[in-house]
Design goal:
The structure holds three protein chains of three kinds. Helices cover 72% and strands 0% of the residues of chain A. Chain A is mostly helical. Chain A has one domain: ABC transporter involved in vitamin B12 uptake, BtuC (Orthogonal Bundle). In chain A, helix 3 packs parallel to helix 5 and helix 3 crosses helix 11. The radius of gyration of chain A is 22 Å and the shape is globular. Chain B has one domain. In chain B, 70% of the residues lie in helices and 3% in strands. By secondary structure, chain C is α/β, with parallel strands linked by helices. Chain C contains ten helices and ten strands. In chain C, strand 1 and strand 2 form a beta hairpin. The two termini of chain C are 39 Å apart. The chains are: A mainly alpha, B mainly alpha, C alpha/beta. The interface between A and C is large, with 41 and 56 residues.
């Protein structure tokens, strides 16, 4: 029986076809993001636009966490730490950069103008810085399993929060900032008060570009050898190792990937809220994200989207019940875990469920009958 | 010298506090391999229940607190929290005994949120801080060499020592304790050997919750009562949890050792570092970092904890 | 005759317990060698030593001309040694074909970037993996279950899947740990034929742990018997069957101190 590498040459797709199918989903993502921003946003009004924005950010955050918790089956309960780290890097670049290079604190308008480019750059920077920390957090997985790795992630989240609260004050006036260098200002991240006056560059477009791109990437990851290797680590680590999967490396890669997008998530979060408060991005936030992943279904991409939507929209719907809202939420959590531990989707995607398959075959049968 | 002594007493008291709470984490983890995130909320409820009982009995008006007030409040609260812990286990955790561990973790978080928010309701403990110092004034019991021995510190140390010794005796010297240890080694086999695993789990939660209540009361006396949803309870629980892990989770002596170590770092190291660097303001804020730093160090070099034993998985 | 797997003087002790003592073995290329012994003899421990789960205290292990002792299991798998597990360790939630594809992924070279951007090489490798995985499922006769969840498979098919998965890593040496445990007679007969065909079909050498003596004696060219970590016999099946040390290890020696009626003992043949 021919080895895999001996078959590869004969199975190569055409370069044009491959490039096309490689990039098409990204073009689609861009297009959908434009639709989100230009059509759906105005159509649903301000309140729902804000909710959609939050859902988008939640998708980026939970979708990335899903790679570590869902695919690789690790317990990462410090994801907000990556958000915070990425957020800090991003606001440092946007706020101080804007003042030092463009002389203003306000958002600079213009499609793909200096303002938006600065914002885009800060998101990428946030992702890169966070992924460095992802590497740091993932490395202990060489020696630690399960609960112990979870505790390290918890510790990481707390340490980042505490360190953030120890940074220096944020000078807010343009005069105070000019005359200092970006390097000097790297420690002026707001301390316990947090960082404020962050220019509001986040739009439906930017959020959904990142959200849709992330969805494409995690989809491709899941249905590939690298993704299956992660799932194998989750299912049976010892067997995975015996089948040649370098489990430590896989976990580290998962952490780095997840941290990158969490960093971007932190950046867009900061530029939407207008501030970055370390107290807001501590253990509680990490747990909120874990809840989305578990409720949606660990390892399921559609599950994440559903979970993010429910867990962002529901609190808004229940706002009126204020006091009892959190109690209802807590009870709901407990009940769902008892009655449906695999979450809404489990590890399956929507199109893999029997429910969907039945609807689809009923639909095709209906259409076949119509044709006659 | 007196400064050193005072700091030592302080360390022992804080250590005792952490130990009482850490024991609850370590006992439950030892039996069920599960980090009970709702444990810190039993602690906060312990503090608040004590407050409620004391104020209902009229013992919080100054000068109206009889000597027997504190012991009664302590005992009563420990019993109530025991029942609370057992009920939670029965309703929320037992159905998930066979489920993947992340799920029970989420349930624990749900329970935690539930306890926090119910505690905030006006019909329960309300949304405002309170103080319980009237129940037991923090008088100076004795002074020697310039060092004051106060009621709270003494009570904490004595209570902790007594409770830990009793627990040690139970776990290592009684049939019940042997059964508990058996379940923590291998739940299934223990069950097959005739041990009623459910009863053992119930007892474990009862003990852990009672100790948590004691810890909560002592914490509330020293630091005043913040609302149930306040971050101070979470941080307290987190540090006690770190103590349990550092000492070797699943291990009673480990919890006590870890608690002392964490307290040592928090109080002792902090004090001497701030004295060594008086001009650097942020040096005084580093306690939390020390605690988590020790956690990371221990996990990297001896993950089973200082007194823990590594568990080998059969291939 | 080349040696596919050369084990020299390997020992492992757990604290005071000597699990494996001075084990040696030269597995010839294309050979089918059996490893038997009473329960707790150290057979699976030996497999764990060979595959890198444990590190030997002494000795050396060579796969072909490469030294493998001290290496990680994933490295050893990459170098060409695969195994199945005594207590089945499938990737339960994954489908049958995905179990095999995961293992086949060992022989791909695409990294994360190529994966995320679906480069031509990545697409080709994924197609190749699927192709080979389907062929393996065919050989193991479980193609009809390819999309089912592994954990829902009947027991016999689970064992077959374990073998398919191990073969997907393109090994030179395959370690089978009790491949027919718990199977009925018909299933065992089918597996017997299958295992016998593997060395020729895949160009591999096999080391087999089994308790089913009939199967072992039938298909193995050479058998090693170990008890309490010590090799007590080695040779062709017929020699092993009559070796007194082997019989003693499995059945024990009649105890003279216990008075037994003469007609209770089996007649000596």
């Amino acid at each position: 029986m021919k080895p895999v590498q001996d078959r590869v040459a004969a199975l190569r797709p055409s370069v044009a076809g491959a490039v096309g199918s490689s990039l098409a989903p990204f073009a689609l993502a861009l297009g959908l993001a434009v639709v989100m921003d230009a059509v759906i946003g105005p159509a649903v009004g301000a309140t729902w636009s804000k909710i959609l924005l939050d859902v988008g950010i939640a998708i980026v955050l939970a979708g990335s966490l899903n790679v570590v918790n869902g695919y690789a089956g690790q317990f990462s309960i410090g994801h907000a730490g990556f958000m915070l780290v990425g957020g800090y890097a991003a606001v440092w670049l946007t706020f101080y950069g804007s003042v030092l290079w463009f002389g203003t604190k306000a958002p600079i308008p213009g499609f793909l103008g200096s303002g938006q480019l600065l914002f885009l750059g800060s998101c990428v920077l946030g992702g890169l810085v966070a992924s460095l920390f992802g590497l740091l957090v993932g490395l202990p997985s060489l020696r630690l399993r399960g609960d112990y790795l979870a505790i390290v992630t918890l510790g990481f989240g707390e340490i980042v929060r505490v360190l953030g609260q120890l940074t220096a004050r944020q000078p807010k006036s343009i005069a105070a900032i000019k005359g200092r260098s970006m390097a000097e200002l790297a420690n002026n991240l707001g301390g316990a008060e947090g960082f404020s006056q962050v220019p509001g560059y986040t739009t439906l477009f930017s959020v959904y570009v990142f959200a849709f791109v992330l969805l494409v990437l995690v989809y491709r990851l899941k249905y590939s050898s690298k993704g299956r290797a992660l799932l194998a680590v989750r299912e049976n680590e010892i067997a995975a190792e015996a089948m040649g999967v370098d489990t430590t490396r896989s976990k580290v890669v998962a952490f780095v990937f997840a941290a990158f997008f969490a960093g971007i998530g932190g950046a867009i979060y900061a530029h939407q809220v207008g501030a970055l408060d370390p107290k807001e991005l501590g253990f509680q936030k990490s747990i909120d994200l874990v809840i989305i992943v578990v409720i949606g279904g660990m390892g399921s991409i559609t599950g994440i989207v559903i979970g993010a939507s429910i867990l962002v929209i529901l609190p808004e719907v229940f706002r009126q019940f204020s006091d009892y809202r959190m109690i209802a939420y807590a009870l709901a959590l407990i009940v769902v875990m008892i009655l449906r531990p695999q979450g809404i989707m489990g590890v399956k995607e929507l199109w893999e469920t029997t429910w969907w398959r039945r609807r689809m075959s009923a639909l095709t049968a209906l259409m076949a009958r119509r044709k006659r | 010298m007196s400064d050193l002594l005072q700091t030592t007493i302080n360390t022992l008291a804080v250590g005792g506090l952490y130990a009482l709470i850490a024991l609850g984490y370590t006992l439950v983890y030892g039996i069920l391999r599960f980090i009970n995130f709702a444990h810190s909320d039993i602690v906060s409820w312990g503090g608040w229940l004590a407050f409620t009982i004391a104020s209902a009995a009229g013992w919080l008006a100054t000068g109206h607190s009889p000597v027997f007030a504190m012991p009664i409040v302590l005992l009563l609260t420990m019993v109530i929290c025991s029942v609370l812990g057992v009920t939670i286990e029965r309703l929320a955790y037992r159905p998930l005994r066979k489920a993947p561990r992340l799920n029970v973790l989420i349930t624990a978080i749900g329970v935690s949120l539930f306890l926090q928010n119910v505690g905030l309701l006006d019909r329960f403990f309300g949304n405002r801080p309170a103080t319980m110092s009237a129940l037991l004034p923090n008088d100076v019991l004795a002074t020697f060499g310039g060092v004051h021995l106060r009621v709270y510190d003494t009570l904490t140390i004595v209570l902790t020592v007594v409770l830990v010794l009793v627990l040690e005796r139970v776990i290592y010297g009684t049939r019940l304790g042997r059964a508990m240890r058996a379940v923590s080694f291998d739940e299934r086999t223990a069950g097959l050997m005739g041990i009623n695993v459910n009863s053992i789990v119930t007892v474990t939660f009862a003990i852990g919750s009672a100790l948590a209540a004691a810890g909560g009361i002592l914490f509330a006396l020293r630091n005043d009562l913040r609302q149930t949803a306040d971050a101070s309870w979470v941080l307290l629980g987190l540090k006690a949890f770190v103590a349990a892990v550092v000492g070797g989770i699943g291990n009673v002596r480990g919890a006590a050792t870890g608690a002392l170590l964490i307290a040592f770092v928090e109080v002792f190291v902090h004090r001497y570092v701030t004295q060594a660097f008086p001009d650097t303001p942020w040096v005084g804020q580093l306690q939390d970092i020390y605690v988590f730093g020790i956690l990371i160090l221990v996990l990297l070099f001896k993950p089973s904890g200082l007194l823990g034993k590594a568990v080998v998985e059969k291939v | 005759m080349t040696v596919a797997l050369n084990v020299t003087d390997v020992s492992l002790a757990f604290g005071g317990l000597k699990a494996v003592s001075s084990f040696s073995l030269a597995l010839p290329s294309g050979g089918l060698h059996g490893l038997i012994g009473p329960n707790g003899a150290g057979k699976t421990t030996l497999f764990n030593l060979l595959t890198g789960v444990y590190r030997p205290d002494t000795g050396r292990i060579e796969l072909g001309d490469q030294r493998i002792d001290g290496k990680k299991p994933s490295q050893i798998a990459a170098m060409g040694m695969a195994r199945t597990f005594q207590n089945i360790r499938l990737f339960g939630e994954l489908s049958v074909i995905d179990n095999v594809r995961t293992a086949a992924g060992l022989r791909t070279k695409s990294g994360l970037f190529r994966t995320l951007f679906r480069t031509p090489m990545h697409v080709a490798e994924e197609r190749a993996i699927t192709q080979r995985s389907l062929e393996l499922l065919d050989v193991l006769e479980i193609t009809h279950r390819k999309d089912e969840q592994a954990k829902g498979l009947p027991y016999g098919d689970q064992r077959r899947l374990e073998i398919a998965r191990a073969l997907a890593t393109e090994p030179r040496v395959l370690l089978l740990d009790e491949p027919v445990a718990g199977m009925n007679t018909q299933e065992k007969r089918d597996m017997r034929k299958l295992i016998q065909s593997l060395p020729d079909q895949f160009g591999i050498s096999i080391l087999l742990i089994e308790h089913d003596m009939g199967l072992v004696m039938d298909i193995c060219e050479d058998i090693t018997v170990i008890d309490h970590g010590v090799t007590i016999a080695r040779g062709a099946p017929t020699a092993i069957q009559n070796d007194p040390a082997v019989i003693e290890a499995y059945l024990g020696v009649p105890d003279e101190s216990v008075a037994v009626a003469d007609d209770a003992l089996p007649a000596a043949t």
